[in-house]
Design brief:
mainly alpha, 41% helix, three-stranded parallel β-sheet, Rossmann fold, 5 strands, 233 residues, 8 helices
Length: 233
Amino acid sequence: MLVAEMNWMQIEEQARRDDRCVLPLGCIEQHAYLSLATDAILAERVANEAAEPLGIPVFPVQAYGMTPGFTAYPGTVSLRMSTYVALLEDLLEGFYRSGFRRIVLVNGHGGNSPAMTFATEWMGKRPDASVRMHNWWAGPRFQAAVRQVDPAASHASWMENFPWNRLAGVALPDAVKPPFDSALYQAANPARKREILGDGNFHGCYQKPDEEMLRLWAVGVEETRAAMVESWP
C-alpha cells in the first residue's frame, strides 16, 4: 500500500484501522558499478513488497542519508547528522499527527544507524508511539542466506547486485576483489578512502546468477515483513 497512491482521507481511515506505517531509509552513495541510489532503491522495494500483503502504508523513501566517508566519489551526497536528525524528527512528527503510532524504519544504509538513537529519544517525548528500525540487509536470516551463497560479500559486491539496481550497458568485472586493510580504511579521510577502495567494492565478486539473487531477495522480504508484525511493545 503505497502512500503515493493514497489521498489524505484514505490515510485518515487507514490510521484508525491500523496504526502502523513504514518509512524506507536509503542513501545516495557510490556502489562501484551499481546505481548510486542502490540503498534507496533496495530499501523502498523491500519495504513495499513486505508491507503489501499486510495492507500497511509505505511512505516514499527518504533517499538521502549520512555517508561522509564516500564524499570523494562523484555523485555521493551526504547529509550532516544535525540535518538528518532534524529531518527525521519532522517525518516522525508528521506520521504521529496522521494517527500512526507504530512506525517501521526499513533501513538500507549502515551509515543511517544513528537514526534509531534519535528515534529512541523521540519516543521519550511521545510515550504512546513505538519506532522499530530494521536494517533489512543485516537481518540474521538474510545474512545466513548470504553466507550459504558466498561468505565473501560486502558493500557494492554481488550481495547488493539485484536486477532492479543494476545499470544497463555497464559491464561488471569478472573477478574477485580481495579484502582491504580495514584499520587503515577506518582511520583515513574521504580522499584516502577512495584510494584504498578504488572502484568502491569492499571485497568479493561482483555478480551472482539472478536465480540465486531472487532467492536471497525473498528471504529479505520475508524477514522485513516479520519486523512489521512481531514483538511490538
